Amino acid sequence: MKSLFVGIYLAILADVGSTAPHASSTLIAPTAEPTGATYASGFDMTKSWANLSPYKSAQGFGATRGVPRGCELSQVHVLHRHAERFPTSNLLDGKGMGDFASKLANYTKLHQKQAIANGPLQFLNDWEYVVGENTLMENGAATEDASGADFWIKYGRLLYRSGQDNVAAWNESLNVYPNGTARPKPVFRTTSQGRILESARWWLSGFFGKSTADSSSDQYNLVVISETEGPFNNTLASYVSCPGHKTAGDEAAQIFIPRYTEGALSRLARYLPDDFNLTAYDVLAMQNLCVYEHTSLGGSFFCSLFTEQEWKDFAYNIDIQYYGNFAFGSPTGRAQGIGYVLELAARLQGRLIHSSDTSINYTYDDNSAQFPMNQPFYMDMSHDDIILSVISALGLEHFKYGPEGLPIHVDHAPSNRTFTLNDLTPFGARFISEVWTCPDNVSFSSLDPILYVNPRINEAPDSKRYIRFLLNEAPLPLKGLVGCEESYNGFCPVDGFLSGVPTLKKHAKYQEACFGDYPTGHQVGDGAPYS
Ligand SMILES: *[C@@H]1O[C@H](CO)[C@@H](O)[C@H](O)[C@H]1NC(C)=O
Ligand SMILES: *[C@@H]1O[C@H](CO)[C@@H](O)[C@H](O)[C@H]1NC(C)=O
Ligand SMILES: *[C@@H]1O[C@H](CO)[C@@H](O)[C@H](O)[C@H]1NC(C)=O
Ligand SMILES: *[C@@H]1O[C@H](CO)[C@@H](O)[C@H](O)[C@H]1NC(C)=O
Ligand SMILES: *[C@@H]1O[C@H](CO)[C@@H](O)[C@H](O)[C@H]1NC(C)=O
Ligand SMILES: *[C@@H]1O[C@H](CO)[C@@H](O)[C@H](O)[C@H]1NC(C)=O
Ligand SMILES: *[C@@H]1O[C@H](CO)[C@@H](O)[C@H](O)[C@H]1NC(C)=O
Ligand SMILES: *[C@@H]1O[C@H](CO)[C@@H](O)[C@H](O)[C@H]1NC(C)=O
């Protein structure tokens, strides 16, 4: 953590020093007032970048880490987010930055021969907007590759029982049933969107990675589910089939944004002409520019302009957007996630799906070529919001704030919320469902740090399957999950979980949430329309 902070500090200093001889010296001073590139407290701004934060293992959500002694790791289901991308065209994301750049360029054109900005904003006189759009970045590809490799060491070697000979990497000869007969090629899924498809390939490249860095695509089949408006049912991009209300979060954030940016606005406006009319949205754009420039270019002048509190509030503005658009604050929150939950249940039951009244497109799920059974692991490449909707469809109370959604008539982020995208959906986020088969005397109270060799106890009498969910490597507490009332330390009997799924489906109210007529314009409490 420390070294990351130091790295950023040095990167900013290096940028200021080397590429901007005309920059105001106040930028370089480590104690720049009222803001600065350094934070004496050790504050790390990258942890306040919400869903734009770099990947790191989550701090923890209240359930103990570790693996249960004596159990077999039977199966793993991965729902994965793409990694570092360029901004989307959303107003509060890429469009806002583009508008700010265009406003500045227009103003500059009208006031030739005049330096427009001064003080800490002096760099704007030579600044250009060079950030791209929508696609996966090179470092995003690297994040996915690393994640696939990490999955190999933690799960793949156990599921495929690599032994000492093949512990270093996947080997096709491992893809066999317990009786030694070859298994079919594993099948994985992705949406058709460029950054998602590329993320899937890079992740799989990391998993199958050969020491010679050969392409691994001959080792697997990839099912690409279209993400085009159609409407096309797609559980990994369920917003395309659910026209219901999905903007309560954006609307809520637009109430909070002018409030939290007030201080920065009056501070920064002083360094621009009055008739530039700096707005709250320009300030938000400048924070976004720090994040995107830092992520895609390796540094940014914008980063040192803001205080710790302003970064915490920036994070909250994005948390609100996602909470109200895709999670418990959204009337379609559960609906957008229930399709994946139903698919997970079907995979656990070894059952194909032949009809749909949710975002599932059953033509993908009614055949074992695209929806295989009993695969050691599944990997579905998707978006951050789908992970959030799945957590909401599961009803995990840990992430729920209150009956009216997240507070927005406040000046600063409430520190007592647990819905923080920095922990939930950084770039490359991973939601993992582990299936363990355990003997009847299993204890989940004290867990081991690692499983060296995966035992085979599948056929043992009295053995029982358990499911556990992890987000970014930290187990999730199951309070609120129907059917898992008896769970302990995050482990729920698979039978119990499956018994609750029909109720979860009811709670999601898919048809009403996606196609019904209900009051909109505000957040809700439980991820479904009030009724
Ligand atoms: C900048 O000028 C162009 C051309 O006149 C115009 O289309 C655009 O809307 C202006 N941008 C802003 C942010 O006002
Ligand atoms: C894969 O495993 C087989 C059997 O252990 C071995 O003969 C072969 O050399 C391995 N291949 C690679 C590329 O490591
Ligand atoms: C090995 O096990 C698989 C899966 O259970 C089965 O389909 C296959 O027929 C078995 N092969 C032999 C030779 O028993
Ligand atoms: C379902 O998927 C098939 C392709 O497998 C496609 O032709 C069809 O349009 C899709 N339907 C919906 C409603 O998504
Ligand atoms: C700022 O507002 C004034 C008054 O409405 C307007 O004339 C001017 O064009 C605005 N400046 C910019 C850069 O939009
Ligand atoms: C697509 O979703 C709708 C539910 O809104 C469902 O009625 C329809 O059968 C689904 N189509 C397919 C091909 O699964
Ligand atoms: C968070 O703190 C606020 C202010 O003290 C309080 O009103 C609210 O109930 C708390 N919410 C949660 C979820 O703890
Ligand atoms: C469960 O029983 C097995 C076999 O008797 C024993 O080796 C193991 O230590 C027991 N585990 C626990 C947690 O008591």
**Content-based structural category:** alpha/beta
Rg over C-alpha atoms, rounded to the nearest angstrom: 24 Å
Tell me, rounded to a whole number, the average pLDDT. Answer: 91
DSSP strand (E) fraction? Answer: 5-15%
Ligand types: 2-acetamido-2-deoxy-beta-D-glucopyranose
Order of helices and strands: HEHHEHEHHHHHHEHHEEEEHH
* Unreliable spans: 1-34
Domains (count): 1
Number of strands: 8
How many individual helices? 14
State the shape: globular
Largest sheet: 8 strands, mixed
Structural descriptors:
alpha/beta; Rossmann fold; eight-stranded mixed beta sheet; binds 2-acetamido-2-deoxy-beta-D-glucopyranose; 531 residues; single chain
Walk me through this protein's architecture:
A hairpin with a 2-residue loop joins β6 (464-471) and β7. The protein is an alpha/beta fold and 531 residues long. 36% of the residues lie in helices and 9% in strands. Strands 1, 2, 3, 4, 5, 6, 7 and 8 form an 8-stranded mixed sheet that branches. The chain has a single domain (1-82, 224-531), classed as Phosphoglycerate mutase-like (Rossmann fold, 3-Layer(aba) Sandwich). The chain binds 2-acetamido-2-deoxy-beta-D-glucopyranose (8 copies). One 2-acetamido-2-deoxy-beta-D-glucopyranose (NAG) binds next to α2.
Summarize this entry quickly.
Helix content is 36%, strand content 9%. The protein contains 14 helices and eight strands.
How is the topology of this model organized?
Blueprint: H1 2-19, E1 72-81, H2 91-110, H3 138-159, E2 187-191, H4 194-208, E3 221-225, H5 248-260, H6 262-269, H7 280-297, H8 308-326, H9 333-349, H10 362-365, E4 377-382, H11 384-393, H12 421-424, E5 430-438, E6 464-471, E7 474-475, E8 492-493, H13 494-508, H14 510-515
Parallel strand pairs: 1-4, 2-3, 2-4
Antiparallel strand pairs: 1-5, 5-6, 6-7, 6-8
Helix pairs in contact: 2-7, 3-4, 5-8, 8-11, 9-11, 9-13
One 2-acetamido-2-deoxy-beta-D-glucopyranose binds next to loops.
